[in-house]
């Protein structure tokens, strides 16, 4: 039975930690809780203790009747130091909500309470779920602290966007919902297994096709979905390379990134790496058309007010080209961003026409999903299955996509090229 140590900081979102605890226990996990003193002002220790059946600690000086172990485990012969024993017996440590203050402490190695001392001693997967006002989350200091934690291998969850704690406040900073928190923990518990030894190639972002030295034809893809898929593949043991088309979001250590601008550059980068990969996940939004000729300088506005006419030509269909040259055992997953009725039907047609193993279809016409959003809602289509993934964070959606990939990899006897 997996053991989860839950750290709860002092924020209005602390009540959601109760919901997470119930969900984790229902899923068969064992949970122990540590709180900061400020957290007890929002949710009392007795609430968590009543749900988990285990004492809840705030300071190192409190006696722990379980001596650092989880409910049902044999008691050790002596009473160890709580901040060492709790993380030693846990399989994963989740801090949710993680306040700006605690994030700053974690980033700079401050261990002035039980929660942060346990984090400093943690050699298990550490996941933090920031939750705060959007102004605090977007502040350069907070973003720098999060970047530092990511560099050290901490899994940092992206908060949701919506109504915040104060009346009338709206923006990024909401604690992810309990199913997303549990999915993140369970993903962390699967590190180094399912894709162990596999080489995974992911494309992300949106290509830009030059009109002149200033302007381009492009799209709104941020690269978030592709990056989430890459990070999920890495968590499952794969060696991951991302071909990133104009992506500016933070990057994860341990993943190789190749930056490109145009569809032609993306095609070349993929072609050079395709033979060595076991799985290709084509999440980038690649331009279907480009200007026939790009001007060397900037096109000046015509003072007469005449219109500017652009002649567009088709770009290379990168996915079709790669599919035609695949070796036995390679698995190829396409992505199709559609709008409105017929999205799923087009995805099925594309699956067949391009000879793919699976295709991920999302209707970008829905509110709060798709391009530039932290959430998504998709259908994963294969030759024999259509699986709907309801609206969730792109990290959760990425986990569902990788589950589908692993299913196809098993059924098709995909072989890892070493």
TrEMBL record:
Residues 200-418 are annotated as: Phosphopantothenate--cysteine ligase. GO terms for biological process: coenzyme A biosynthetic process; pantothenate catabolic process. Residues 1-199 are annotated as: Phosphopantothenoylcysteine decarboxylase. Its cofactor is Mg(2+); FMN. Keywords: Decarboxylase, Flavoprotein, FMN, Ligase, Lyase, Magnesium, Metal-binding, Multifunctional enzyme. It catalyses: (R)-4'-phosphopantothenate + L-cysteine + CTP = N-[(R)-4-phosphopantothenoyl]-L-cysteine + CMP + diphosphate + H(+); N-[(R)-4-phosphopantothenoyl]-L-cysteine + H(+) = (R)-4'-phosphopantetheine + CO2. This is Coenzyme A biosynthesis bifunctional protein CoaBC. GO terms for molecular function: FMN binding; metal ion binding; phosphopantothenate--cysteine ligase activity; phosphopantothenoylcysteine decarboxylase activity. In the C-terminal section; belongs to the PPC synthetase family. Binds 1 FMN per subunit. GO terms for cellular component: phosphopantothenoylcysteine decarboxylase complex. Residues 3-181 form the Flavoprotein domain. It comes from the Bacteria. SUPFAM superfamilies: CoaB-like (SSF102645), Homo-oligomeric flavin-containing Cys decarboxylases, HFCD (SSF52507). InterPro entries: CoaB-like_sf, CoaBC, DNA/pantothenate-metab_flavo_C, Flavin_trans-like, Flavoprotein. PANTHER family: HOMO-OLIGOMERIC FLAVIN CONTAINING CYS DECARBOXYLASE FAMILY (PTHR14359), PHOSPHOPANTOTHENOYLCYSTEINE DECARBOXYLASE (PTHR14359:SF6). Its EC number is 4.1.1.36, 6.3.2.5. It holds the Pfam family Flavoprotein. The gene is coaBC. Residues 195-406 form the DNA/pantothenate metabolism flavoprotein C-terminal domain. Catalyzes two steps in the biosynthesis of coenzyme A. In the first step cysteine is conjugated to 4'-phosphopantothenate to form 4-phosphopantothenoylcysteine, in the latter compound is decarboxylated to form 4'-phosphopantotheine. Catalyzes two sequential steps in the biosynthesis of coenzyme A. In the first step cysteine is conjugated to 4'-phosphopantothenate to form 4-phosphopantothenoylcysteine. In the second step the latter compound is decarboxylated to form 4'-phosphopantotheine. Pathway: Cofactor biosynthesis; coenzyme A biosynthesis; CoA from (R)-pantothenate: step 3/5; Cofactor biosynthesis; coenzyme A biosynthesis; CoA from (R)-pantothenate: step 2/5.
